[in-house]
Design a protein that fits this description.
With 114 residues, the chain is mainly alpha-helical. It is built from five helices and two strands; from the N terminus they run ααααββα.
């Protein structure tokens, strides 16, 4: 793999609620814990905790908007996550191709012995 896998980043993305929050933020451009909670089956407090995890992973950044924080997705960090996922996928594709070649070699050896 060319890109090192960031476990904290993938732990943050691993939660389905946080992935949904990222989708909402990408679609809306930005959002607050209150506005996001209106679209999710969790409380505003739970959304705030999820946003804190995403913020620590660098996936979102906040700025003050009155009494609330307005969150935006860090597109560079998200692109880094996509690159990591592509690298992991490529590594697994290569492994599966090697397993297939080994299985085909074994199959040919068995056929020749019969």
């Amino acid at each position: 793999m060319t890109t090192a896998v960031d476990d904290d980043l993938w732990s943050a993305i691993g939660d389905p609620t946080r992935r949904r929050m990222l989708d909402l933020l990408l679609n809306q451009g930005s959002g607050t814990a209150t506005s996001l909670s209106e679209h999710l089956p969790v409380t505003r407090q739970a959304v705030a905790k999820h946003l804190a995890v995403l913020d620590r992973a660098g996936l979102v950044h906040a700025h003050s908007a009155g009494r609330e924080k307005q969150f935006r997705v860090d597109e560079d960090q998200l692109a880094r996550a996509v690159a990591q996922l592509a690298d992991v996928g490529n590594a697994w594709d290569a492994r599966l191709r090697r397993i297939k070649r080994i299985a085909e070699t074994i199959e040919k050896t068995i056929e020749r012995k019969q």
